[in-house]
Design goal:
Largest sheet: 9 strands, mixed
Helix content: 25-40%
Oligomer: single chain
Structural class: alpha/beta
Bound molecules: 2-methylbenzoic acid
Strand content: 15-25%
Length: about 525
């Protein structure tokens, strides 16, 4: 169990503590050619914190933080936390309609926004019911009644005492990215934020001050917030931010910032492999010691290819926005079996239960994953979802897993993605993993399509590789590749080729959209 004093403030633990303990000159943030030390970061946080206080932001108030992966995003979140208010980071691709819903639902009173991302806030402006103050970073000639970030932080004091937050006070609000419908607000406390670093990061990654965390998950994604804010800063290490991530900029950033722990999602690992074959011959990636992946299950194929080309192992993990970070993973010291996600992260307990009765299921039997630990699911304004998602202290993130005899947990599918065909339970991702290995396949999603006799049939929606010509011979070949490897009833009876798969902004395939098309 992880214990914290009653009064604790995450921003102080992540930044001020290092300055007080003599690590003020350590680099906290690498951004382009800029290096920001812990002392400099502390000063920026204090100045912005004072500005927020002067604008009337009060403890508990929600403050929208809308940035690309830039230092001001970290400054804004930590300044908000330091004064006891609650940052609400917003994904950059959200449009005015979605922002209006989220900002009104969260009853946010202030926003700190990067000027490139201001348009949608401006478009939403007249419908924002509670938002009183908007601070804009960088824009020259500010419109409306917006405040200038730069002017504010130049005019305020560099000294700020932390607000005496209780460990159970809210420290971060995130909205789920919504693979399955309308997004929901989730709350995380100061204690829970620190606990993600003191469980998953401490035991699975074991960071030291010399580590440089980097990669492409957006900071408003719980996964990115942990990997690129909480974890590096908890351990006095540094974070490397990249604004417009592409396979090339990521490889360049590994070389330029000396990234040691590379955090990403399976799609990006696959793009790095396919767009930059022999990447390590062109870029110096010798600083890397470990990869981290989440968001979607990582296939053994990708794990092996990265290991072979880059000489690092990837820790695949499962987490959720509601649980704040990863709760099942291997540790970097484990013998990693890439066909499984791993073990419960130290501090968490996991069970496999019958989705209908809630009874425990024996090892080897797939069922719903139930998890209990220092983080948990807390929805804002959604008592209906709260009752559905938490049963007697056990959170139910909605994933089907099996616990193997060796104790490892193996991912099967989202509960919603389990295909039931002629009475057989078929996890879509298991079929995807086989198809993905075929040279003709660039991306694939497997769903259940309604069928009169069988209830559902397995359908694969495939983005083919550029140079491949699609014909009935290819369909046979793909179907046979599944029949040869898995129980034959799992093969995709239908295959559709498309240009692109629908994805959330965090890169998750929206199978719900594909399923909806099947109903039409
Ligand atoms: O999608 C995931 O696996 C994840 C991991 C860590 C934190 C948040 C999420 C959604």
């Amino acid at each position: 169990e992880v214990h914290y004093p009653e009064t604790i403030n995450a921003a102080t633990e992540l930044v001020d503590r290092h300055v007080t303990e003599g690590r003020g000159d350590n680099v906290a943030i690498h951004f382009k050619s800029e290096k920001i030390t812990y002392s400099e970061l502390q000063e920026q946080i204090n100045r912005l914190g004072n500005a927020l206080l002067e604008l009337g932001v009060e403890p508990g108030d929600r403050v929208v933080v809308r940035f690309t992966n830039r230092p001001e995003a970290i400054v804004s979140c930590l300044a908000t936390q330091k004064i006891g208010a609650v940052p609400l980071p917003s994904m950059k691709l959200l449009r005015a309609k979605e922002l209006t819903y989220i900002i009104n639902d969260a009853e946010a009173t202030a926003a700190v926004v990067y000027d490139d991302l201001l348009d949608e806030i401006e478009a939403a402006h007249d419908d924002l019911e509670t938002l009183e103050e908007i601070i804009v970073a960088e824009r020259n000639g500010i419109g409306h009644d917006f405040h200038s970030y730069n002017d504010l932080i130049n005019d305020t004091s560099p000294e700020l005492s932390r607000h005496e937050t209780h460990r159970g006070d809210p420290a971060l609000m995130l909205y789920t990215s919504g693979t399955t419908g309308k997004s929901k607000g989730t709350f995380h406390t100061h204690r829970q934020l620190l606990a993600t670093a003191d469980t998953y990061a401490r035991y699975c990654i074991e960071p030291t001050e010399d580590d440089v965390f980097g990669g492409n998950p957006p900071l408003p994604f719980a996964y990115g917030y942990g990997d690129l804010v909480t974890f590096p800063l908890r351990f006095g290490a540094s974070t490397s931010l990249v604004e417009n991530a592409s396979p090339q900029t990521l490889l360049e950033t590994i070389e330029n910032h000396g990234i040691t722990v590379f955090c990403s999602i399976p799609t990006a690992y696959n793009q790095i492999l396919s767009k930059h074959p022999n990447g390590p011959e062109k870029y110096d990636v010798s600083s890397l010691r470990l990869g981290v992946s989440a968001g979607e299950p990582l296939t053994p194929h990708t794990f092996e290819q990265i290991k072979q080309e880059y000489g690092i192992e990837i820790l695949d993990g499962i987490g959720t926005t509601e649980m704040l970070h990863i709760f099942v993973s291997h540790r970097h010291t484990d013998e990693i079996d890439p066909t499984a996600t791993g073990f419960p992260v130290p501090g968490y307990e996991c069970r496999i239960v019958d989705p209908d009765t809630g009874e425990d299921l024996p090892r080897g039997t797939p069922g719903l994953l139930a998890v209990r630990g220092p983080t948990g699911m807390t929805y804002w304004n959604r008592p209906d979802k709260q009752t559905e998602a938490v049963d007697d202290g056990w959170s139910l993130p909605g994933d089907i897993f099996v616990q193997r005899e060796d104790g490892r947990f193996e991912y099967k599918s989202r509960h919603d993605d389990l295909i039931i065909s002629s009475g057989y339970n078929i996890p879509g991702p298991e079929v995807e993993a086989i198809l993905e290995e075929h040279e003709a396949v660039s991306e694939v999603a497997v769903i259940g399509s309604p069928h009169e006799q069988r209830g559902q049939i397995v359908k694969a929606v495939i983005v083919p590789n550029d140079e491949i010509s699609v014909d009935s011979g290819l369909i046979d070949e793909l179907q046979n590749s599944v029949k040869k490897t898995l129980a034959p009833y799992k093969y995709p009876r239908e295959i559709e080729f498309v240009d692109k798969l629908p994805r959330t902004e965090t890169g998750k395939i929206q199978r719900i959209k594909l399923r909806e098309q099947e109903q039409d």
